[in-house]
Write a structure and sequence with these properties.
This protein is α+β, with helices and mostly antiparallel strands. Helix content is about 35%, strand content about 20%. The protein is built from nine helices and eleven strands. A seven-stranded mixed beta sheet has the order 4-5-6-7-9-11-10, with helices on both faces. Strand 1 and strand 2 form a beta hairpin. It is globular and about 65 Å long.
Amino acid sequence: MMTIQGRPLSPQALEALRQWVGDHPRWSRWRLSRELATRWDWRNAAGQLKDMAARTLLVKLAQRGLLELPARCQVPTNRMRCGAQPAIREPAERRVCALADLQPLSVEEVSGQLAERAWIRAALGQFHYLGFGGTVGQNLQYLVRDRQQRPVACAVFGAAAWKCQDRDRFIGWSAEQRQRNLGLIANNSRFLILPWVTVPHLGSWILGQVAQRIAQDWQAKYGHRVMLLETFVERERFRGTVYRAANWQAVGVTAGRTRQDRHTCLRVPVKDIYLYSLRRGFREALCA
């Protein structure tokens, strides 16, 4: 018995899958993944087919030599190197004011809006120190505009880190519980206030507004709520002031490794771990 993409596969199920793929030699990988998700009725909590999960499962099996897939019809675009977004022009004057002068501010979830999503990608690619290669998997993207509908900030939330020793110790869950409930945590992977905007308390105000709505937004898009938010702050660059001001809790530090570091030889900057609970009893829910 093996588990791939969270789905257990017995030797009999694997043989049946191998025969099914072999029976359709003219199908593309796209069609195979769609048909497989439909065949298994593999859906997320919102009822959407998990065809990308099915695609990844098929690719992993092929990489292990357990089945043979048809050749790709198209070479996938490397989104990390895609720099086609137009540059965002900085205004002639900096925006230095009090938070009240920007009100009423709007915070909108825009992951389903093409133009706004493209703007966020361009802004993060141009002004965030980590850049931005796009999102993978479940995610929400927030765009913040001022009273004149001018963008002032954006934030991206996506999948939580698979393993994080201090976070996992703080929650108190087992490896099995983490595997089962990791989708109930959202990671704030990017947060940007445009460099020409200097407004005291703006960052913590935005985090507070997002915290009030993200569970409901996640429910609306994916059919389930998130219960805990996490983020990782590079301690040699930042002090985490915005997160502390928004009542996020520092729970430890990372080990200075990446998720690709299988041989414990890749070193990356150490980051402080901050968590924000969205409901009482989150530990009990995550450890269920």
